[in-house]
Design goal:
Length: 319
């Protein structure tokens, strides 16, 4: 359960008086997620999400995320805008953290996607990329190669090896290989960079919302395809690559936005990078999650298995 900062009902009640959203009916900590503290809020008028931003979100980046969500919403993408308070302010302070009240979107996130759902998710990713072609703001990727190296070093080889014997050597060898092999000829864009199934809300085979834009950044556009592929095409524990999900996801994307030959060729390396990124953030959290946080840590080895699969099977991205 991701609640790092505990907020009392009285504090939420007082917080809501800043807005024109009715009065508090109920507030519950949300079970999913590992990054921020999230609460489901019901008022006399509507339902909302209250997010308090924790360690990996720099409050200075919130205006970028708000502008991106407003841009996507204006282009017809189903994303949840932040709510403005009575004075027009969207970014607040609550319990010493930056906080936003966010529109609640209906839908559920699937745990075992069907090919039809993967196709829909790929198509929506492509639509988002298409909508972002004329989005002019930029944000450096806070989870780039330098950040991966820092995460590895902060875990320490011993820390990594405690998670899985030999993991330190695997991680450092992959970091070196990816530094050399990373493509520098591909188009950049603002990307989501974390489009896991739990960040795609669906009803049946239809996507009802994309959420959790807090890793959005400027980077190689096809890296977003790689992240989404790594997140969607395996069993949760990283075993059992599902070829049909992969074909559906890539097919859905290609229906909405072109994958160039250069991008397709680079996808195996980009997917190894994606797998390493989530392996490392999960490994860092595995070692450093506060004992009193209401959070279920995510298994880093699930992304070690994905990394090893991509190392052995670059052909999964062939057209
Ligand atoms: N706008 C929204 N509408 C409906 N539900 C939402 C919304 N935003 C968040 N949620 C719910 O809250 C959960 C956690 O939100 P979110 O994924 O943003 O948290 P996080 O801690 O940043 O997670 P992650 O570990 O994926 O980075 C989601 O899985 C979803 O169930
Ligand atoms: N989606 C990520 C959490 C965000 O870094 C994971 O599942 O590890």
């Amino acid at each position: 359960m991701a609640v790092y900062t505990k907020v009392s009902a009285e504090e939420i009640d007082a917080f809501l008086t800043r807005y024109d959203v009715g009065t508090l009916v109920s507030a519950k900590g949300i079970a999913e997620g590992v990054e921020n503290s999230n609460f489901m809020i019901e008022t006399t008028q509507d339902r909302f999400i209250l997010t308090l931003y924790e360690k990996r979100v720099d409050p200075a980046d919130l205006p970028f995320f708000i502008a991106m969500l407003d841009h996507l919403a204006a282009k017809g993408c189903s994303v949840p805008p932040m709510i403005a308070d009575k004075s027009g302010e969207k970014i607040q302070q609550l319990c010493g953290k930056s906080a936003c009240l966010i529109k609640f979107l209906s839908g559920v996130s699937v745990t075992t996607p069907t090919p039809a759902q993967a196709f829909a998710a790929g198509a929506v990713l492509g639509e988002m990329h298409s909508a972002l072609v004329d989005f002019s703001l930029e944000r450096p990727n806070s989870m780039d190669h330098d950040a991966w190296r820092k995460l590895a070093s902060d875990c320490g080889s011993e820390g990594l090896d405690k998670i899985f014997s030999g993991l330190g050597a695997i991680v450092y060898s992959e970091l070196d290989e990816l530094d050399t092999a990373w493509p520098d000829n591909l188009e950049w864009s603002v990307i989501h960079a974390d489009l896991f199934p739990d960040n795609v809300l669906m009803l049946g085979d239809k996507v009802t919302g994309l959420i959790d834009f807090y890793f959005s950044c400027s980077d190689v556009r096809a890296y977003d395809i790689a992240v989404t592929h790594a997140a969607w095409c395996f069993a949760e524990d990283g075993s059992g690559f599902d070829k049909n999900i992969s074909i559906a996801l890539l097919g859905g994307y290609a229906k909405s936005f072109e994958i160039s030959d250069e991008e397709r060729e680079a996808l195996p390396v980009l997917a190894r990078g994606a797998a390493l990124r989530f392996l490392l953030t999960r490994a860092f959290d595995w070692i450093n999650t506060p004992a009193d946080a209401l959070v279920t840590r995510k298994d880093p080895t699930a992304f070690l298995r994905r990394l090893q699969y991509y190392q052995k099977h670059p052909e999964v991205f062939n057209a």
